[in-house]
């Protein structure tokens, strides 16, 4: 009986509240590199932030938790740097975490956003945030990090590309338009018909906007790659993917604005002057790999690709040289997704 | 009370049900006036799980009636999680709660109602938070291979809920009301009447709950802050009507169970606090049963028609998911003796599922036929069971399942048993796994498991007032072709037979009962250990291989102490769940928790009636804990219950 009482007392002591964090070494390099936003599982709350450092050639995981002592949120989707601050858009938490881009200490949080996806800076004072569920783009005041208004698109929004006084915003889920906003007065001024589900966009060195249209998940339509003249808001070129099974995503461009990259059964590479889509992948995934997002270093054209494996276990970041040679493979968080380059001009 | 739940529903079904209830209730009104001054109070046996000797060679336990009474205003999830080894994954008060039995998944546990499977054919599982314990008369737990004596597919086991008559000339009316923390109000009304030939039982239930408990949120800032749970209201009502006719050589019964639950679904601690998610679960279950007895032979026929609606709304994500399942089950069994010691049982089971869902391409039907033959032999101290089952699914015969059990009574006349069994049990994929758009895979194979179990059971009367029960079981499950959803070639996930899982473990429990004059006391302690390991997988370099499955605790323990003296009683239950990993590589976990509940009550007898009132304190030490990551569970809470009963 005495032993039983001891066991009961012991069990009472072995209680509960504190969660053991998956702590990592905080000494991540302050130099140049790339942030990797690990989405984590929907409602799993296991999204995180990683950083690959060029100085140490190492990856540092779970940085937001390590620095701030709390989880980043549910499904962080993207990140962008503006001056000393980095904006992390946390989709299913409906918020943007603003951190010091050097120390990653939390500086502010913008709450109350509806399923935010991406942030794009219009100028030093203003940013637009796209939304998966809301039919409006949210306007953020960058001075006090507050929500100052909404632009009603009557459509959901995904990718945002800004050129001059125009913002081009893609209507992704079940859409087939690019909405054009006058950034001076935040009004919709035009819309451009493109292919089904325009998912990602990039500007080339001539200022032409390239739009990758996925074709829709039901695979009833062909995917398209479209070139848009941003002065006239008109379609210049359309490349139709050869089969309905082609489901491309994640369009990026290199630092010179000359070479496009996207995912479609591996990483594809295409010159902006090419007359046809590339039929041979630039880099093929190995068996068991699931290429999820890519990022191109604008300085040296290194190709980063995330491998989400089975979307449940921790994924990897693969680093390839511009030539396509694998340089390193590094373990990241769960569902490593979009990347944000931290460029040090004079390191 | 504020409910955001939409009222714009089809009330037609409700109206029909209302008239059915009125019709069945009419005889009761006539009986009410003859309640007189003698009352009988049903004797409550203060002990926990009773062992049942059937089926031979398998483990089956029965939840004690005293526990059922204590939980009469609660749901099945609370009762199972606090009193058994079955781990419940719960999204918190009012939220979905699913069982994990011996390391298996929620869709590997069957919930039966009088031997008829009531798991949703779409999900392949049941939400235990929707089942009010007060509507149920008896809860039996069939472990592993034992579940094959009822149905196919219960790889982990089966929880069988019985509603049954008591053949006596008696009229009983009971009103059971409760009020508790976080805006909980419950009511349960039972009315039974009849004689040795006819019984009618009506039970009605309602529950309103705000579930607006306070919790400590340590996820949104480095300093924890107190917050109140929002968008967590629940409103539930339902009834069961049962009619029984005993014709000496046969029993005919008819049962109807209607239930409606509307609830708002709270967000995780990391998501937008009020996305306005809500869910409607409505079910109508009917059952006709005929059992005929001729000497040692018997014939049984059951026909069941069930309608189950599950509508989910997420205004933020513009999701309006509407799902209706119609299920028809016909089951016939014939049991005949073979010689003096053995009996043969043949069961034919036919199930038709018709699904109407805006998540499927079209109305989808599935027919499954099952033929089961079993022989049970019991001679002196040996008992054996052999069972063979063939399933015809979508016009394809599956590999036959089997189960074989052996039981040995160590000493004549004494209740010391050794039991062992080996089984192969298949689980056909759920309709969502096959037909959900996008990602459902109509070419899925069925999952199957090889199950091995050996157990020792003892039931001993040490002296006149003191009894002791002890059991120890060791089990091993090899689950093959387990279905998982994984990212497909396009931007959506798809279902596939991906994984193998090996689950090994042990369960043990000890119970002491002491009854002397006006004093009765019992003590019960149980412990289980489960290693559920991801085995081979189709993913190369899968780091989850060899790791414990997520949300399966290795260690679980529960203990209870109950004491009653004359008309006062009290009980203390304690429940421990060890740490549960929340990542497949076991790098992160939720810490274990140890929850204590306390009840004290008093019973009065007044002429023709009795009053039983008790006060519950749940989570006595106000532990802050989570069953699912970022879904908080309530701290200390209080509940007052009053049961008034009239018997004639």
Q: Can you walk me through this structure?
A:
- By secondary structure, chain A is mostly beta strands.
- Helices cover 5% and strands 46% of the residues of chain A.
- Chain A has helices spanning 2-13, 63-68; strands at 33-38, 48-53, 58-60, 76-82, 85-90, 95-100, 106-110, 116-121, 126-131, 136-141, 146-152, 160-163, 166-171, 177-182, 187-193, 198-203, 209-213, 224-229, 234-240, 249-253, 259-263, 267-271, 291-296, 303-307, 314-320, 326-334, 336-342.
- Chain A has a four-stranded antiparallel sheet with strand order 3-2-1-27. A four-stranded antiparallel sheet of chain A has the order 4-5-6-7. Chain A has a four-stranded antiparallel sheet with strand order 8-9-10-11, with no helix packed on it.
- The radius of gyration of chain A is 21 Å and the shape is globular.
- Residues 1-25 of chain A have low confidence and may be disordered.
- With 648 residues, chain B is mainly beta.
- Chain B has a single domain, classed as Beta Barrel (Maltoporin, Chain A), CATH 2.40.170.
- Chain B has four helices and 37 strands.
- In chain B, β31 (580-581) and β32 form a beta hairpin.
- Chain B is globular, with a radius of gyration of 24 Å.
- Chains A and B meet through α1 of A and β32 of B.
Task: Write the topology of this structure.
The complex is a heterodimer of chains A (347) and B (648).
Chain A: H1 2-13, E1 33-38, E2 48-53, E3 58-60, H2 63-68, E4 76-82, E5 85-90, E6 95-100, E7 106-110, E8 116-121, E9 126-131, E10 136-141, E11 146-152, E12 160-163, E13 166-171, E14 177-182, E15 187-193, E16 198-203, E17 209-213, E18 224-229, E19 234-240, E20 249-253, E21 259-263, E22 267-271, E23 291-296, E24 303-307, E25 314-320, E26 326-334, E27 336-342
Antiparallel strand pairs in A: 1-2, 1-27, 2-3, 4-5, 5-6, 6-7, 8-9, 9-10, 10-11, 12-13, 13-14, 14-15, 16-17, 17-18, 18-19, 20-21, 21-22, 23-24, 24-25, 25-26
Chain B: H1 12-32, E1 50-51, E2 60-62, H2 65-70, H3 76-83, E3 87-90, E4 97-100, E5 109-113, E6 116-117, E7 138-143, E8 157-162, E9 170-180, E10 184-194, E11 198-209, E12 214-217, E13 225-228, E14 234-246, E15 250-264, E16 278-294, E17 297-314, E18 319-338, E19 342-357, E20 364-379, E21 382-393, E22 396-397, E23 401-409, E24 415-427, H4 431-435, E25 447-461, E26 466-487, E27 493-516, E28 519-537, E29 555-565, E30 568-577, E31 580-581, E32 589-590, E33 593-606, E34 609-618, E35 626-628, E36 631-632, E37 637-647
Parallel strand pairs in B: 5-8
Antiparallel strand pairs in B: 1-2, 2-7, 3-4, 5-6, 7-8, 9-10, 9-37, 10-11, 11-14, 12-13, 14-15, 15-16, 16-17, 17-18, 18-19, 19-20, 20-21, 21-22, 21-23, 23-24, 24-25, 25-26, 26-27, 27-28, 28-29, 29-30, 30-33, 31-32, 33-34, 34-37, 35-36
């Amino acid at each position: 009986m005495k032993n039983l009482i001891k066991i009961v007392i012991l069990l009472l002591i072995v209680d509960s509240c504190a969660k053991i964090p998956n702590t990592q070494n905080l000494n991540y390099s302050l130099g140049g590199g790339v942030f990797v936003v690990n989405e984590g599982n929907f409602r799993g709350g296991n999204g995180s932030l990683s950083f690959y450092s060029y100085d140490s050639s190492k990856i540092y995981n779970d940085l937001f938790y390590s620095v701030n002592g709390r989880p980043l949120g549910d499904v962080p989707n993207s990140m962008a740097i503006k001056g000393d601050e980095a904006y992390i858009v946390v989709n299913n938490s409906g918020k943007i975490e603003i951190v010091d881009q050097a120390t990653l200490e939390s500086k502010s949080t913008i709450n109350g956003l509806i399923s935010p996806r991406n942030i794009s800076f219009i100028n030093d004072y203003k940013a637009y945030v796209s939304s998966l569920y809301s039919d409006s783009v949210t306007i953020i005041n960058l001075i006090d990090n507050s929500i100052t208004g909404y632009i009603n698109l009557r459509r959901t929004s995904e990718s945002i590309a800004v050129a001059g006084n125009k913002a081009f915003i893609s209507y992704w889920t079940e859409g087939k338009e690019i909405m054009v906003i006058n950034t001076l007065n935040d009004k919709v001024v035009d819309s451009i018909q493109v292919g089904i589900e325009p998912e990602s966009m990039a500007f080339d060195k001539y200022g032409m906007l390239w739009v990758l249209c996925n074709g829709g998940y039901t695979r009833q339509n062909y995917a398209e790659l479209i070139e848009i003249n941003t002065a006239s808001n008109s379609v210049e070129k359309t490349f139709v993917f050869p089969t309905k099974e082609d489901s491309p995503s994640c369009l990026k461009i290199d630092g010179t604005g000359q070479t496009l990259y996207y995912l479609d059964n591996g990483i594809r590479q295409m010159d902006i002057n090419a007359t046809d889509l590339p039929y041979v992948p630039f880099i093929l995934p190995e068996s068991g790999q699931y290429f999820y997002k890519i990022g191109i270093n604008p300085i040296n054209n290194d190709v980063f690709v995330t491998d989400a494996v089975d979307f449940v276990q921790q994924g990897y970041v693969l680093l390839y040289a511009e030539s396509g040679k694998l340089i390193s493979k590094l373990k990241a968080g769960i569902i490593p997704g979009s990347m944000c380059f931290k460029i040090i001009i004079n390191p | 009370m504020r409910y955001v739940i939409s009222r714009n529903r089809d009330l037609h079904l409700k109206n029909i049900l209302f008239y059915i209830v009125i019709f069945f209730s009419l005889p009761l009104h006539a009986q009410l006036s003859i309640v007189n001054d003698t009352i009988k109070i049903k004797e409550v046996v203060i002990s926990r799980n009773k062992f049942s000797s059937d089926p031979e060679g398998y483990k089956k336990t029965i939840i004690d009636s005293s526990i059922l009474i204590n939980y009469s205003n609660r749901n099945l999830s609370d009762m199972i999680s606090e009193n058994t080894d079955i781990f419940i994954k719960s999204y918190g008060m009012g939220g979905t709660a699913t069982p994990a039995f011996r390391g298996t998944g929620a869709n590997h546990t069957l919930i039966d109602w009088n031997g008829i499977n009531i798991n949703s054919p779409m999900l392949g599982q049941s939400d235990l938070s929707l089942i009010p314990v007060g509507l149920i008369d008896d809860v039996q737990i069939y472990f592993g291979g034992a579940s094959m004596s009822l149905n196919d597919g219960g790889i982990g086991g089966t929880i069988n809920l019985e509603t049954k008559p008591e053949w006596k000339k008696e009229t009983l009316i009971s009103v059971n009301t409760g009020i508790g923390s976080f805006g909980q109000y419950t009511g349960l009304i039972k009315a039974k009447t009849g004689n040795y030939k006819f019984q009618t039982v009506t039970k009605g239930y309602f529950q309103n709950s705000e579930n607006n408990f306070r919790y400590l949120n340590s996820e949104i800032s480095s300093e924890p802050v107190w917050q109140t749970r929002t968008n967590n209201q629940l409103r539930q009502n339902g009834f069961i009507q049962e009619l029984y006719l005993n014709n000496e050589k046969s029993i005919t019964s008819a049962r109807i169970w209607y239930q409606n639950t509307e609830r708002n679904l709270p967000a995780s601690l990391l998501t937008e606090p009020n996305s306005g998610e809500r869910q409607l679960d409505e079910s109508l279950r009917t059952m006709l049963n005929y059992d005929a007895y001729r000497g040692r032979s018997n014939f049984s026929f059951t026909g069941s028609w069930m309608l189950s609606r599950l509508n989910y709304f997420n205004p933020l994500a513009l999701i309006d998911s509407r799902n209706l399942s119609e299920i028809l089950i016909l089951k016939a069994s014939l049991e005949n003796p073979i010689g003096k010691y053995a009996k043969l049982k043949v069961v034919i089971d036919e199930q038709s599922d018709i699904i109407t869902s805006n998540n499927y391409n079209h109305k989808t039907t599935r027919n499954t036929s099952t033929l089961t033959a079993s022989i049970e032999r019991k001679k002196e101290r040996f008992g054996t069971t052999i069972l063979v089952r063939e399933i015809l699914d979508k016009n394809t015969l599956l590999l036959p399942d089997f189960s074989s059990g052996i039981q040995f009574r160590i000493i004549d006349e004494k209740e010391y048993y050794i039991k062992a069994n080996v089984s192969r049990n298949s689980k056909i994929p759920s309709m969502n796994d096959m037909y959900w758009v996008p990602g459902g895979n109509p070419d899925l194979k069925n999952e199957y498991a090889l199950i091995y179990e050996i157990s020792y059971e003892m039931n001993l009367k040490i002296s006149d007032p003191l009894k002791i029960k002890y059991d120890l079981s060791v089990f091993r499950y090899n689950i093959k072709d387990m279905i998982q959803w994984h990212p497909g070639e396009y931007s959506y996930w798809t279902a596939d037979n991906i994984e193998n899982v090996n689950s090994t473990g042990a369960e043990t429990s000890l119970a002491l009962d002491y009854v002397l004059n006006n004093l009765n006391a019992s003590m019960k302690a149980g412990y289980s250990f489960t290693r559920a390991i991801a085995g081979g997988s189709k993913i190369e370099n899968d780091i989850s291989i060899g790791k414990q499955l997520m949300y399966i605790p290795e260690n679980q323990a529960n203990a209870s102490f109950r004491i009653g003296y004359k008309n006062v009683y009290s009980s203390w239950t304690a429940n421990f769940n060890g740490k549960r990993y929340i990542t497949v590589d076991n790098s992160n976990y939720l810490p274990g928790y140890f929850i204590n509940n306390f009840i004290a009550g008093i019973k009065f007898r007044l002429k023709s009636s009795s009053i039983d009132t008790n006060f519950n304190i749940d989570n006595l030490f106000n532990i802050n804990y989570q069953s699912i990551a970022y879904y908080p569970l309530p701290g200390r809470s209080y509940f007052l219950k009053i049961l008034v009963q009239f018997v004639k």
